[in-house]
Design a protein that fits this description.
Layout: H1 7-15, E1 17-19, E2 42-47, H2 62-71, E3 76-78, E4 85-87, E5 90-95, E6 101-106, H3 120-131, H4 136-140, H5 143-149, E7 165-172, E8 175-180, H6 201-206, E9 213-215, E10 218-220, H7 223-226, E11 235-241, E12 246-251, E13 264-269, H8 273-282, E14 287-289, H9 296-301, E15 305-308, E16 313-319, H10 329-338, H11 341-348, E17 354-355, H12 378-387, E18 394-401, H13 411-424, E19 428-435, H14 436-445, E20 452-458, H15 464-472, H16 485-495, H17 500-518, E21 521-526, E22 530-533, E23 539-541
Parallel strand pairs: 2-13, 2-14, 18-19, 18-20
Antiparallel strand pairs: 1-23, 3-4, 5-6, 6-8, 7-8, 9-10, 11-12, 12-13, 14-22, 15-22, 16-20, 16-21, 17-21
Helix pairs in contact: 10-12, 15-16, 16-17
Length: 556
């Protein structure tokens, strides 16, 4: 993992530990290990969209991960404010010379919220659960697992590869040995993925966690996922009032690490950006995420703490090559030339946003300075469409509603600008708006209904495989790219290169070829997302990975 490459970029975030607080929150009588900060009370944070559920393995979006991160722990985690790794449930780890056998030395005395022991047997139960998951519906929802581990003991969902995972052995209570079938550059960074959090084996069994029912275009999850999530984290689940749009978590007094300073954490779902801002000003919430770019200066002027995270992300426009006209590289290149991305950055991007030429930030190993670039050139776009013999092209362009993402603060505005660019070169656009969870993500990533779509990614760890490999390392419904086997093979080879110099060169060539030969999507921008809190809040450390933990927050 090349975490050192991000240190300079995240120094600002690391230095800016915020105190997130709420006026009018009641203070409890208990004493805490607060180091002088106030303890007790309730911290209310405004989420920008509904979570899908609270079973980590079936999630891949930030609105679901926000509460999950407070309730669960991973074996490895990122140091606050950085993309560097540190121990979590595993105090230390090492691997063999081939990078296939990983030994984790576990923290002792840790309990799950249900009182059961966290130990090596629990680690192996979780790994084996993921690997042995049954049902096409369940496997299709394990996006992160598939990206990292390839396949299952028995692949039932489409487009899955050979499994990377082999076995897990509990050498003793405090030592878990995980064996892989091959080296993968994702490790050890991937062990910090929120999706790979450790859940209570007893709760998983008791609440039938592996049952995922697919009904047409929708999925139903277990009682574990919706009502009884059990991890080892600093907060415990206390309820999800879907009618009110509120998730309530309570302090875990037995947490192994820094105990939460507030008694209660409420994540209040407010999908409208302006409403989130108004509730922040009214004091009904004490923190919001993803403020409108135009609001940042005024919020700071009003006394709110506004922190820009470094832009460790990417927004892209994806092509679904199930549409035969989009199989022609010239058509995809024409669309790339038609987009005035620089104007989009200037008019709709947060301050510090940059046009993206590749699908990862330039702080990541393997970024190539000499990739083919698609400068705004509508005449070139029209010429390529003519050469491809494409006339009267009509495309269904999907975009999400009811959500703001770190890389996509206002999806509708972004869609409108991009659609206008396409129409200016003669491409007719049918806009299709769908709600983020239970609509858009399933339509795009599971059913492939779109021709074009906008989506993006905030990096989880500093490795090219977490960006380029996640998007294009295997065939995906999202891109309809099953025939692009040369791309999959090149990415697999780069990801499996152990030598750092060879790995750097391999990934650089992958990035060149993605731009010039394959172009499965168009990179749009890298945008620094902000997080905003009231002035009387302390202890929140902003993360370039949007990996904020609320146990350090005090109020009042």
């Amino acid at each position: 993992m090349q975490a050192s490459r991000l240190k300079a970029a995240v120094a600002l975030a690391a230095a800016a530990a915020l105190a997130v607080g709420a006026s009018g929150c009641a203070k409890s009588e208990r004493d805490g290990d607060s180091g002088g900060a106030k303890t007790g009370g309730t911290f209310v944070f405004a989420g920008a969209g509904d979570p899908k559920n609270f079973d980590p393995i079936f999630n891949d979006d930030g609105e679901s991960f926000r509460p999950i991160r407070q309730m669960y722990d991973t074996l490895v985690q990122n140091k606050p404010g950085t993309a560097d790794l540190q121990g979590a449930l595993a105090e230390s780890w090492e691997h063999d010379a081939d990078g296939k056998v990983w030994t984790f030395h576990l923290r002792k005395g840790v309990k799950f919220h249900d009182g059961t022991d966290f130990n090596a047997a629990a680690v192996c139960f979780n790994f084996d659960r993921w690997y042995n998951m049954k049902g096409a519906g369940a496997q299709s929802q394990m996006i992160y697992y598939s990206d990292v581990f390839g396949g299952f003991a028995k692949n039932e969902a489409p487009d899955l590869g050979k499994p990377v995972y082999n076995k897990c052995e509990a050498k003793d209570d405090a030592t878990a040995v995980v064996t892989m079938n091959q080296y993968k550059g994702a490790f050890p960074g991937a062990f910090a993925l929120t999706a790979l959090s450790m859940a209570s084996p007893e709760a998983l069994k008791k609440y039938d966690a592996d049952t995922v029912k697919q009904n047409g275009d929708s999925f139903e999850y277990s009682a574990f996922a919706n009502e009884h999530p059990v991890g080892t984290g600093p907060f415990k689940f206390a309820g999800w009032d879907k009618a009110k749009g509120e998730i309530t978590l309570e302090r875990n007094p037995d947490y192994w690490g820094e105990k939460a300073k507030v008694d209660k954490l409420v994540i209040k779902i407010i999908k409208d950006e302006n409403t989130r801002k108004q509730e922040l000003k009214a004091g009904t919430v004490q923190g919001i995420d993803f403020p409108a770019p135009a609001d940042r200066k005024s919020l700071a002027a009003d006394g709110f703490q506004v922190l820009d995270r470094p832009a460790f992300n990417i927004l892209y426009m994806g092509f679904n090559q199930k549409n035969p006209k989009l199989k022609d590289l010239r058509v995809r290149q024409a669309i790339a030339y038609a987009l005035n991305r620089q104007q989009l950055v200037q008019t709709k991007g947060p301050g510090g946003t940059k046009v993206a030429d590749e699908f990862m930030p330039d702080t990541v190993l393997g970024y190539a300075q000499d990739v083919q670039k698609y400068e705004y050139n509508p005449d070139k776009a029209k010429q390529l469409l003519k050469e491809a013999g494409v006339t009267n092209l009509t495309l269904n362009f999907y975009y999400p509603t009811d959500v703001s993402r770190p890389y996509m603060p206002n999806p509708q505005e972004i869609f409108t600008v991009l659609a206008n660019d396409l129409q200016a070169v003669g491409i007719k656009v049918n806009g299709v708006a769908r709600p983020w969870n239970g609509g858009y993500k399933d339509d795009v990533q599971q059913f492939g209904k779109q021709d074009l779509h906008i989506l993006g990614w905030t990096g989880d760890y500093n490795d090219p495989g977490n960006f380029v490999g996640t998007f294009f390392g295997r065939s995906k419904v999202e891109f309809g790219d099953a025939a692009m086997t040369d791309m999959f093979d090149a990415i697999s080879k780069a990801d499996g290169t152990v030598d750092e110099a060879g790995k750097k060169a391999a990934w650089e060539q992958v990035n060149r070829d993605i731009a010039a030969k394959w172009l499965p999507a168009v990179p749009i921008w890298h945008a620094p997302p902000a997080i905003v809190v009231t002035k009387d809040v302390k202890g929140l450390v902003a993360s370039p990975l949007t990996d904020e933990r609320f146990n350090t927050v005090s109020v009042g």
